[in-house]
Amino acid sequence: MDNSTRAAWLAERRTGIGGSDAAAILGLNPWTSPYTVWADKLGLLPERPDNEAMRQGRDFEPYVAERFCEVSGKRVRRVNKMLRHSVHTFMLANIDRDIVGESAGLECKTTSCLNIRNFKDGDFPATYYAQAVHYIAVTGAVRWYVAVLILNQGFHVYRLTRVRDDPLPDWCVSSVHVGNAEIDALIAAERDFWRMVEAKTPPPADGSASTAETLQALYADTDGSTAELFGRESTIREYLGAVMTAAQLGLEPNTPLGQAYLIPYFNSKEKRLECQFQLGYKGLIDLAYRSGGVKSIQAHTVYANDAFTYSFGLEPELKHVPASGERGEPVYFYAVWHGRDGGYGFEVASVEDIRAHARRYSKSYNNGPWQTNFDDMAKKTILMRVLKYAPLKTDFMRGLAADGTVKTEITDDMYSVPSVYVDGDTGEVVDVEYQPTEA
């Protein structure tokens, strides 16, 4: 493809949503966020530079198509044009191959052998699935095949079909039925997204590295600009600082993993909304394991009908037997660690103790994860107490020091950036070297 042809193709891609955009819009793409797709469609981002994975994908596409024909006995042909939905004209399809004599298409994929774990037990990546459903929606095809070359490991074919109880060919690893409701839901999601593109209204910033990189590109020359984050204005620099902190700690913010959160709060001194990085309890556990000094870490909820006893002193004891039936309401939280050298420790706190602590020390108690994920935040609090006595290394303490901070600068080492903390009682900003919050 020469430069003029590629420029025309890129321009046409920006007139609608393509198959490779579908997973990102649905929040299923770990590398690209809805915010990044939105900015790209408006032409706000530079063209993404080519890389080796992209080059190999293009170069191996004819080979993958040939292997598909070999195993399936089918014939395929190229479609040298951009397809567009007849009704929902914002939906585009640049398909790899059309299946001759069948209402079907083929998507050709090449991936690293390091990704082989994503193809166990008939599974394949959600990004592939969303792309194929998008192509079915645009073309009206009955079936879509996904042929995957796993470099140096194998060749697999998967099928999506609109036919219920469609017999599975022996050359297909697995088959997934795609119903009308699923296609309608995809169309609705893409329609809502495209309306945001047309209105030049960005989707919510989600805390992903992709969104952070996009914001950096859009606001590279500004320190104090604002953007719509969390549904309200928040400084981009502080948002990026929180995202970069999470990325350098190897934690994913604002996801179901519960590793970390980006929390908006009102800075009473500056009279504006700011973005705070906050560790989740699962992120705390992950950092502790990576430190290498502990063999196991556990945090549990005790319910009213559980059998639970504990005592401290010279011979500490902890025993918890969960009820087999209705367990009742939470009454205690506890955490235990065992070190590689044989040492151990535990801490216990009642629900009342945890709530009192959160009200006193957490500035986000009334509108943050304390309200949406109370159990997780309670476990984090008790973990931070018990891990004070665990044999943990400097890297863990660096992660702990990031908890509850606002970073106003961005560097390759976010730990070196002076941290801003907010007093939990007054809301006043205080600059200190180290003051991690327990929750």
Description:
- With 439 residues, this protein is α+β, with helices and mostly antiparallel strands.
- Helices cover 35% and strands 24% of the residues.
- The chain has 13 helices and 20 strands.
- The protein has helices at 3-13, 19-25, 34-41, 52-72, 126-139, 180-199, 209-218, 236-249, 281-291, 351-361, 369-372, 374-386, 394-402; strands at residues 76-77, 83-84, 92-93, 97-99, 104-111, 143-150, 154-161, 174-177, 226-229, 232-235, 260-267, 272-279, 294-303, 307-311, 317-321, 330-339, 344-350, 406-407, 419-422, 429-431.
- A six-stranded mixed beta sheet has the order 1-4-5-6-7-8.
- Strand 2 (83-84) and strand 3 (92-93) form a beta hairpin.
- Helix 2 (19-25) packs across helix 5 (126-139), helix 9 runs parallel beside helix 12 and helix 9 runs antiparallel to helix 13 (394-402).
- The N and C termini lie far apart (55 Å).
- Residues 223-234 and 422-439 have low confidence and may be disordered.
What's the main sheet like? 6 strands, mixed
The helix content is 25-40%
By secondary-structure content and strand pairing, the structural class works out as alpha+beta
Count of DSSP E strands? Answer: 20
The strand line-up of the biggest sheet is: 1-4-5-6-7-8
Low-confidence stretches: 223-234, 422-439
Specify Rg, calculated over alpha carbons. 26 Å
